[in-house]
Amino acid sequence: MSLTIEQLNAAGADEAVALLDGTYEHSPWIARQALAARPFRSLQHLKYALAQAVNTATREERLALIRAHPELAGKAMVSKTLTAESTNEQGKAGLTDCTPEEFAKIQRLNADYNAKFGFPFILAVRGPRGTGLSKREIIDTFERRAYNHPDFELAEALRNIHRIAEIRLNDKFGTEPALGNHVWDWQEALAVHSDPGFAEKGQLTVTYLTDAHRACAAQIAREMREAGFDSVEIDAVGNVVGRYEGATPDAKTLLTGSHYDTVRNGGKYDGRLGIFVPMACVRELKRQNRRLPFAFEVVGFAEEEGQRYKATFLGSGALIGHFNPAWLDQKDADGITMREARAHAGLREEDIAKAQRDPSKYLGFVEVHIEQGPVLNELDIPLGIVTSINGSVRYVGEVIGMASHAGTTPMDRRRDAAAAVAELILYTEQRAAKDGDSVGTVGMLEVPSGSINVVPGRCKFSLDLRAPNDAQRDALADDVVKALQDICERRGVRHTLEETMRASAAPSAPEWQQRWERAVDSLGVPLFRMPSGAGHDAMKLHEVMPQAMLFVRGINSGISHNPLESSTNDDMELAVQAFQHLLDNLNGAPSAA
Fold first, then answer.
1. CA distances from 78 to 25, 71, 102, 115, 490 (A)
2. What span, in angstroms and rounded, lies between the C-alpha atoms of 175 and 88?
3. Pairing state of beta strands 383-389 and 529-532?
4. If you write DSSP's letter for every residue of 253-287 in order, what string do you get?
5. Do 209 and 345 meet the contact criterion of CB atoms below 8 Å apart?
């Protein structure tokens, strides 16, 4: 019989510790300390209390906890002295069935890791989906983490221990994150589509209106229909729009969604999580034959990342009437204009205006998004309330100097375009750091036709500058542009610079932020408010209607725009539950269909 929160809350201290036995390996002190937080409001509240007990312990206590765990495929497994929980986990990952070569490699990795860090390598081998990582994933993670700083690796080991404990608690309480599993599986299935040149390498890249992009749109539309949306269409810019009508025909609409395009060699969850979480809500509403007092519209925005063309926020911008016809003449790296790409996709220019929404018919816009950073991960908090989205400005530029022989051109006679950009990069780094909360990035850098023995005559670059408010962003941008001018003048080179995007900071509407806060609090999750350093489609909708965002914790230190980007089925489950709470309490209890 499964354990319940009510049983745990009612149990005496010794009995409660016994009920939680095996959650943390050979460390009953964790459960005993966490019991001070009783009564637990939910299983998630218990998980957080246990994590806090570990995180507030001494370094020696935390090291002892790590060392209480067995090595992966180690001597304890061979001698069959693992705990039942560890045996189950290592078995699900296939570690009890290693080939001699795999076993030998893992043994070498264990020895090297212990020699460097002084504690065993800890990995939640049942993985973010709970069904087990492959041996290849385990070995790759082992090798990657061996290069971490010792302090960081200690924290990463503890985070994996918390994930192990979470899965063990799910087993104890007979809980399965079924909704989170649906969201996970939808995202994994969508990730099979990738652009040529990346698909062959096993990398995920989906840029605007490529064949892979259109396949994603078709798949999202199909999943929406199967989930129970009343209508689904792909609009004139490639947005996938699903509507679940309200209880009355004239009801206003709540708008949500995010983007399904990706950066090059990116992750599976950036943007897409914000499509599939509300889709899971609609799936449940349809299954229960329930209607809300308002219509619910979920949009998979076709473009947000600005990867194929210099225009960004094409999808969400079209909804507010901000599609610039001049964008149609932009060319991608292969010389294909956006107009040509749209014609190939069967999208009609004259239909673009039809995508614009009348804000008076909408209640507002909410967006769920993976955090794309380490904050929630480090705090062991699964959900974060976004207070504002930082303002940003982007440029593409080129410095033009003089190509010359690398061996015969004296250092004081050079007009080195790449060196000028290098100096700009360092200035941008230092200037952004002065603000404390501004950021500046040169993410693209190219020496066209460069050669090892030629002083670079040209250097192309990008600039991405962000800050919490527009005034701070503009001051940063002014200083960086002025520095570029000074650098070029001093070095005897010239430059071009084109602003490709400017987005204002977007503070969350207070009433909508509070709705997210109530939804998160209802789950027993601690409230954590934070700004978003990344740009989101919510920034565009903010221009015409109130908006607020919910962040979901990422694993692997919250890394994003990277193949390691991921989240767990448990955190996705919480995101769906929070969204359901927001829907149910937005305008009174939902009515029956």
1. 18, 11, 14, 21, 67
2. 17
3. parallel
4. EEEEEEE----TT--SSTTTHHHHHHHHHHHHHHH
5. yes
Q: How large is the greatest C-alpha to C-alpha distance in the chain, in angstroms? A: 83
For CA atoms 368, 369, 375, 381, give the dihedral sign: positive
Q: Where are the beta strands (DSSP E) in 371-457?
A: 383-389, 391-400, 404-405, 439-441, 445-446, 454-455
Q: How would you classify residue 59: left for phi > 0, otherwise alpha for psi between -120 and 50, otherwise beta?
A: alpha
How far is residue 59 CA from its own chain's centroid? Answer: 30
Pairwise CA distance, residues 424 & 421, whole Å: 5
Q: Tell me how far apart the alpha carbons of residues 211 and 199 are, in angstroms, rounded to a whole number.
A: 12
CA distance readout (Å), 472 to 465, 475, 505, 531: 10, 5, 10, 15
If one counts every other C-beta atom within 10 angstroms of the C-beta of residue 251, the result is 18
Amino acid found at 571: D
pTM of the model: 0.87
Measured in residues, the chain has a length of: 593
In angstroms, the first-to-last Cα distance of the chain is: 36
The residues with which 497 forms a beta bridge, in sequence order, are 397
List Cβ neighbours of 508 (8 Å cut-off, separation of 6 or more): 385, 386, 387, 388, 547, 548, 549
Which tokens is 457 given?
């005559």
Q: Are strands 295-301 and 240-244 parallel, antiparallel or unpaired?
A: antiparallel
Q: Please list the pLDDT of the chain residue by residue as tens digits (593 residues).
A: 899 999 999 999 999 999 999 999 999 999 999 999 999 999 999 999 999 999 999 999 999 999 999 888 766 665 666 677 777 777 776 777 778 888 889 899 999 999 999 999 999 999 999 999 988 899 999 999 999 999 999 999 999 999 999 999 999 999 999 999 999 999 999 999 999 999 999 999 999 999 999 999 999 999 999 999 999 999 999 999 999 999 998 899 999 999 999 999 999 999 999 999 999 999 999 999 999 999 999 999 999 999 999 888 999 999 999 999 999 999 999 999 999 999 999 999 999 999 999 999 999 999 999 999 999 999 999 999 999 999 999 999 999 999 999 999 999 999 999 999 999 999 999 999 999 989 999 999 999 999 999 999 999 999 999 998 899 999 999 999 999 999 999 999 999 999 988 888 999 999 999 999 999 999 999 999 998 988 899 999 999 999 999 999 999 989 999 999 999 999 999 999 999 999 999 975 444 43
Report how far residue 148's alpha carbon sits from residue 103's, in angstroms, rounded to the nearest whole number: 23
Contact 208, 263 (CB under 8 A): no
Is residue 92 within 8 A of residue 126, CB to CB? The reply is yes
Instruction: Report the C-alpha gap between 463 and 327 in whole angstroms.
Output: 20
